[in-house]
Amino acid sequence: MPEAKILHIEETESTNLYLRKLSEEKTLPNGFSVYSDFQTAGRGQRGNSWESEKGLNLTFSTILYPVQLKAENQFLISQIVSLSIYDTLSEYTDGISIKWPNDIYWKDRKITGMLIENDIMGDYISKSIIGVGVNLNQDIFKSDAPNPVSLKQITHKTCNIESVLISILEKLSSYYKLLNDTAATHRIRDTYKDALFRKNGLYKFADAEGFFFARIKNVKDIGLLCLETETGEIRNYGFKEVRYILD
């Protein structure tokens, strides 16, 4: 992924929507990114809105064309984006982890969310639009989101938004170059697992059947979260089929 253009806009409904519309109007280079001071309708994985005070946080989207990546391996996109943000934020503070599938946490609080939209053509991914929201300089969160935190709340320092963006994109470019290397993708998956939120120990979860205690056993290549309950039962979950209980 060569160095690509970064477009800055003051306000948009959603950087993902903006980038998708732009990509339909003209051919964009691999890695082209757009970031906005404010999104009026930012979305997360579960359809939740993303609270962000104007000009204080990083909200951006990037387009990739991983045309050699089979659709069955699309979770690798989520993993390399998560690791790029994890690596960047870890340069500012300890306590960063990746909450499956791709939220970034500081301790028990959410600092980053993302929405990844993959276009599939046949057996391969033709286009991936990745939307990210990173809480950077916001001091107060007014919504009913249960556990937001910003980098400023953690470090008590204001950070340069564009510097954080460039760092994330540089790391993403490095990871992206490894996607066609089988040995490297194994390392990516292992690194992702090592960075997982609550990777060790027994914790409370909830699924359609109710609450239970389990430990993370594995994350499968297709993205399934493999849990081992306190009774030794192995359960595999797809996105939105299980949730962490953070109390």
From TrEMBL:
<dbReference type="InterPro" id="IPR004143">
    <property type="entry name" value="BPL_LPL_catalytic"/>
</dbReference>
<protein>
    <submittedName>
        <fullName>BirA family transcriptional regulator, biotin operon repressor / biotin-[acetyl-CoA-carboxylase] ligase</fullName>
    </submittedName>
</protein>
<dbReference type="GO" id="GO:0004077">
    <property type="term" value="F:biotin--[biotin carboxyl-carrier protein] ligase activity"/>
</dbReference>
<dbReference type="InterPro" id="IPR004408">
    <property type="entry name" value="Biotin_CoA_COase_ligase"/>
</dbReference>
<feature type="domain" description="BPL/LPL catalytic">
    <location>
        <begin position="1"/>
        <end position="180"/>
    </location>
</feature>
<dbReference type="InterPro" id="IPR045864">
    <property type="entry name" value="aa-tRNA-synth_II/BPL/LPL"/>
</dbReference>
<keyword id="KW-0436">Ligase</keyword>
<dbReference type="GO" id="GO:0005737">
    <property type="term" value="C:cytoplasm"/>
</dbReference>
<dbReference type="Pfam" id="PF03099">
    <property type="entry name" value="BPL_LplA_LipB"/>
</dbReference>
